Amino acid sequence: MVTFSRVNPWGKINDLSLIQGIDRIKLISTFREYEVAKNKENLEGTVSEGTPDLRPKSHIPFLEEKLGVSKDALYLWCLRLCTDRFLDIINDDSDPTINRLQVEVRYWTTRQRIRFKADVTQALVNAMAFAHFIRTGNIDERMPELTPNVLYDYLESLYFVGVDPSCQHLMPLLKENWCNVGRPSTHYYQGFRELRWESVKKSISLGREMLFDETTGARKETKEKTSLMIIKEMIEKLVLRDGFKIGGEASYIIENWENCRYAQEDLVREAIGLLGEVEGVYKNRILDPKAKCQDKWMANEGYSPDRAEILRKEACEKMFEAKGVKV
After folding, report:
1. Each residue of 25-43: b (16+ CB within 10 Å) or e?
2. Confidence of residue 128 (pLDDT cuts 50, 70, 90)
3. What is the mean pLDDT of residues 246-268?
């Protein structure tokens, strides 16, 4: 867990709402279950080596016993590290043209799990575009203007990259890129990690119902509703991991779409570059336009967003082992 703290003189203050000014403690980020498990692999040589569990309930008592100190001493040590860091920042005069504290606060604010709605929507649009570029694998691919049909195609690409087992190896690469550029809140990886994939499937189903003829499967004219109404209804089906819906008028989505179009060359290059790091057996399926997303692994009774990548990895192994491919 990472927090920002602004500490007043120590005292028993139970109702922080009585204090004027910004909130004193702000939750920035927590690790998911598989991230906690993965972090245990990197503890050799650290004071946390040997801990039964990195979560505070088990880890803090472990540190108490190992170091021979109290919980209060551990908390105060953390506060001292925060204080030292704060002093380093406010005394940093290497570039007098910038406010180093302001820059640092903005940087860390982008790591908050609770996002401004506009950032989430932009991240979602960026994720759709990125996924579509991954699926086409074409360096010359360009985003068209947003229409219901285009939105449907991009959502299908998003669902495939986010759910199909063959794309499981892409996620660590996307996260690495996100971390390397400072974890911006509008990064395409942020779009992937914030979504509930069941809601994407519902949006695609709604789009299919409105845009395709049930008998022939061909695209049909939608005279009953305008394009903006269809786009709005499809987007409103999307739900974030925290339970909030994207919602809003179609004009906001179109604005984010146009923002993405301005940066599409960079997205294409990154998508093609990351695709080049994927093994051929997975890449062949990703680039196959006839391949339909395999999402049965999401029906697992133990499924939750926290365990999704673990279950998808297992599904990937089963999928390709069934084809005689050793993974």
Report:
1. eeeeeeebeeeeeeeeeee
2. very high
3. 82
Tokens for 194, please give them.
């914030």
CA distance 268 to 142: 8
Nearest to 222 by CA among 144, 149, 143: 149
Residue with tokens 């269809």: 230
* Long-range contacts from 42-50, C-beta under 8 angstroms, 24+ separation: none
DSSP states along 4-58: EE-PPSS-----GGGS-SS-SEEEEE---HHHHHHHGGG-TTSTTTT-S-SSHHH
Other CB atoms within a 10 A radius of the CB of residue 128 amount to 27
HSE at residue 102, side-chain half, CA atoms within 13 A, is 4
pLDDT at residue 67 in the model: 93
Helix (H, G, I), strand (E, B) or coil at 217: coil
| Res 9 pLDDT > 80 | no
User: Is the overall model pTM greater than 0.70, yes or no?
Assistant: no
- Give the residues across from 3 on adjacent strands: 27
Q: What is the per-residue pLDDT across 99-116, written as a single tens digit (0 to 9) for each?
A: 888 877 766 655 554 444
* Residue 121 and residue 246 in contact, taking contact as beta carbons nearer than 8 Å: yes
List, for residues 30-52, the tens digit of each pLDDT value. Answer: 566 667 777 888 888 899 999 98
Burial letters 271-309, b for 16+ CB under 10 A, else e: bbebbeebeeebbebbeeeeeebbbebeeeeebeeeebb
